[in-house]
Amino acid sequence: MKITAAVVNGINEEYQLEELTLGQLYPDEVVVKMVASGICHSDEALRMGDAAHPIPAVFGHEGAGIIEKVGDAVKNFNVGDQVVMAYNYCGTCAGCRTGHPSSCEEWTTLNFTGARPDGSYIFFKADGTPVSNFFTQSSFTTYTITNKNNLIKVDPEADLRLVAPLGCGLLTGFGTVLNGLKPKTSSSFAVFGTGAVGLGALMAAKIEGASIIIAVDIHDSRLETARELGATHTINSRTENLEERIAEITEGLGVNYSVETTGISAVMKSSIDVLGIGGVSAPVAVTPNSLEFNTFMDLVLANRKLVGVLMGDAVPQLAVPQLIQYHKEGKFPFDKLVKLYKFNEINQAAADSNSGKTIKPILIIDESYRSAEPLVSIK
After folding, report:
1. How far, in Å, are 22, 57, 123, 176 from residue 129 at the CA level?
2. Which pLDDT tens digit goes with each residue over 75-129?
3. Which residues 6+ apart lie within 8 Å of 321 measured at CB?
4. Helix segments in the chain, DSSP class H
5. What are phi and psi of 192, to 5 degrees?
6. Among 33, 152, 240, 264, which is least packed by CB within 10 angstroms?
7. What's residue 377's pLDDT?
8. Spatial separation of the C-alpha atoms in residues 173 and 284, rounded to whole Å
9. Contact 41/85 with Cβ under 8 angstroms?
10. Which residues are 216's β-sheet partners?
11. Spatial separation of the C-alpha atoms in residues 216 and 172, rounded to whole Å
12. Taken in order 18, 24, 26, 30, is the CA torsion positive or negative?
């Protein structure tokens, strides 16, 4: 089957739309006709070489589409089902069976090696050269093959152009708060970086009843959006003294919880420094940068904790429908973050994301999908 995909052929090279061949469908897989895909900073980190991944590759891991074909071993999914896609997991290891699929023992093998566990590939160039996949999803394409464990069935009424980005960035931010930090009601919370992950965390903190929600960024426009979404205070760390402002806001106590999404070493350190006694911080960015701190002075002395939370420690099949419901109720208005781009505008969309101009770009891959129903709620 011939498809069109956005291929990265070299580190820090632009996406190139190319005709590829879709490989063999395995029994536990489905073919999905892509409708839309968010662009996540993890895609850009791999494209720019901040994290290793086999090249050439088709990236994209915030995809939504319609099932075109179903493998013989796939249950509970049918041709025509609308699906959002998240990460892959084995389903049988201790992590998966205790409700933590992002702790799957095979997580890296399934999501980051670029091939199936048996070494086979999903995409091929015309000359037979294999092209790596990402997250067993590779949503920057007109059609893809994905595993049944990647799939989240959504209501037929759901607009796939809107819900596509729920499978990674927003899921990560939301889940980091609910599953990683588990904040107490009326607690204080700070988020460093107000991209999709940070704002997902901010909205989750509001849902969980945090009384002080501080958004930190260097873009005033993003801080304004953060206020619309529930931030009680905003700090532009380029023009304000971060630690002094947080001390002022919290009456010298520091915050109970922080989420760090920038991956910048100095900012990661600040997210720990502003914690109060017993505070907990979660650094979640995909970054090549390291963090240096003194374990006794920065953690032990004040009973602070630093926690790692992958993909929000969320079960996507439970969390994504929950996020859609929260959106319907007005509690998770992520539509305020997105901007739509045509598939052939992928390089512009990526550039706008990297510059901070667009918080969450969404590529519309199938422009015929509900073309008579414009998304008037999206800015």
Report:
1. 12, 11, 9, 38
2. 999 999 999 999 999 999 999 999 999 999 999 999 999 999 999 999 999 999 9
3. 152, 154
4. 41-47, 94-97, 107-112, 160-163, 169-175, 196-207, 220-229, 242-249, 265-273, 316-328, 346-355
5. -105, 110
6. 240
7. 44
8. 9
9. no
10. 192, 235
11. 18
12. positive
Q: Write down the residue that tokens 């947080």 correspond to.
A: 246
Q: Which amino acid is at 22?
A: L
User: Which tokens is 234 given?
Assistant: 């905003």
Q: Residue 376 pLDDT more than 70? A: no
DSSP letter assigned to residue 334: G
The SS3 call for residue 280 is: strand
* Stretch (H or E) spanning 189: strand 188-192
Q: Record the tokens describing residue 322, joined without a space.
A: 């929950």
Closest CA relative to residue 233, chosen from 360, 248, 131, 292: 248
Could you check whether the bond before residue 130 is cis, i.e. omega within 30 degrees of 0? no
Taking the C-alpha atoms of residue 12 and residue 1, their distance in angstroms, rounded to an integer, is 29
Amino acid at 41: H
Report the amino acid identity of residue 81.
D
Pull the structure tokens for residue 205: 């903190």
CA-wise closest residue to 63 among 174, 156, 146: 146
**CB atoms near residue 207 (< 10 Å):** 16
Please name which of 261, 292, 277, 281 lies closest in space to residue 356, comparing C-alpha atoms: 261
Rounded distance, CA 258 to CA 268, Å?
A: 10
Is the Cβ–Cβ distance between 226 and 199 less than 8 Å? yes
Q: Alpha-carbon distance 21 to 299, whole Å? A: 52
pLDDT of residue 374: 77
Provide the 10 A C-beta neighbour count for residue 351.
15
